[in-house]
Specification:
Blueprint: E1 6-14, H1 20-30, E2 34-46, E3 49-55, H2 58-71, E4 76-79, H3 85-98, E5 103-105, H4 120-128, E6 136-137, H5 141-148, H6 155-167, E7 173-175, E8 184-190, E9 195-201, H7 211-224, H8 229-245, H9 262-268
Parallel strand pairs: 1-2, 1-4, 4-5, 5-6
Antiparallel strand pairs: 2-3, 7-8, 8-9
Length: 270
């Protein structure tokens, strides 16, 4: 089968395989597309927590992005964990050079285990620079709260926060509603022209490690294939929900989801 699109992933490595670059590659590949990577950080972690984080030199991150894209032009880009100001600046410069405007930004800040992954100064630079470069930003509720300095308890709070993100320069926002205390999963897609709420049944499980990485990579894949952003979000959410529903229950903590389930989902989306 010929790959439908080529996706460049700029993100960190998760040694447990549930999140980060590993989850991104599985997602893009199982959805029938071609994954390329620029690794920003190496983590030693498992389902119970993060043991260590090793930074990659910003110059080497730029080399990965630019040298890869020079040969194989990506149809879309997914950005995940950027752990320092120098890394964010390096990525922005490289994005300017490769001139790709289909960019999905997952503002990774806190691990599923609760470990904080980037500091406040880095968050501020992300808010003032990188958000403006993205076609879509996909924060979960804790990330949206940090970015907007807003408490989010309801759908109305999500809309208020999404509007604040637009004021920061975001073009489109998808706030993931998994942290809301409701039986129904509500994900909010928001831009200056429309508000769409994607509703799905919520799975009562702690095994959701890597759902944010997986969703943003799925959206980037569908977006790279020519779908609209709204449709890409809808399809990505369906994929993640089915991956959670068929989760393998690995590990003692927050276990991974089933990326291979996407092979079945992909057939339905043709």
């Amino acid at each position: 089968m010929k790959p439908k699109s080529k996706i460049l992933i700029i993100a960190g490595s998760d040694s447990s395989g549930g999140a980060g670059i590993q989850a991104d590659i599985k997602t893009v590949t199982s959805l029938g597309s071609y994954a390329m990577t620029a690794v920003t950080v190496i983590t030693a972690q498992n389902t119970t927590g993060v043991k260590s984080i090793i930074s990659i030199n910003p110059k080497e991150i730029s080399n990965q992005i630019e040298y890869t894209a020079k040969d194989i032009k990506p149809d879309a880009i997914k950005i995940g964990m950027l752990h320092s100001i120098s890394v964010i600046n390096a990525v922005i410069k490289s994005l300017h050079k490769i001139k790709n405007k289909k960019i999905i930004l997952d503002p990774v800040m806190v691990a599923k285990s609760g470990t904080k992954l980037i500091n406040d100064k880095t968050i501020e630079i992300l808010k003032t620079t990188l958000i403006k470069k993205a076609s879509l930003i996909t924060p979960n509720i804790p990330e949206a709260e940090i970015l907007t300095n807003t408490k989010i308890k309801t759908k109305e709070d999500m809309i208020f926060a999404a509007n604040k993100l637009l004021n920061l320069g975001a073009k489109n926002v998808l706030i993931k509603g998994g942290h809301l205390s409701s039986k129904i999963m509500q994900d909010l897609f928001f831009n200056k022209n429309e508000i769409v709420v994607f509703k799905n049944n919520k799975f009562l499980t702690k095994n959701t490690h890597g759902t944010g990485c997986t969703l943003s990579s799925a959206i980037a894949t569908f977006f790279g294939c020519g779908k609209t952003l709204k449709k890409s979000c809808e399809m990505g959410i369906k994929y993640v929900n089915q991956a959670i529903g068929t989760r393998p229950n690995f590990g003692k903590g927050h276990g991974p989801i089933n990326h291979l389930n996407s092979i079945i989902v992909n057939k339905k989306f043709r």
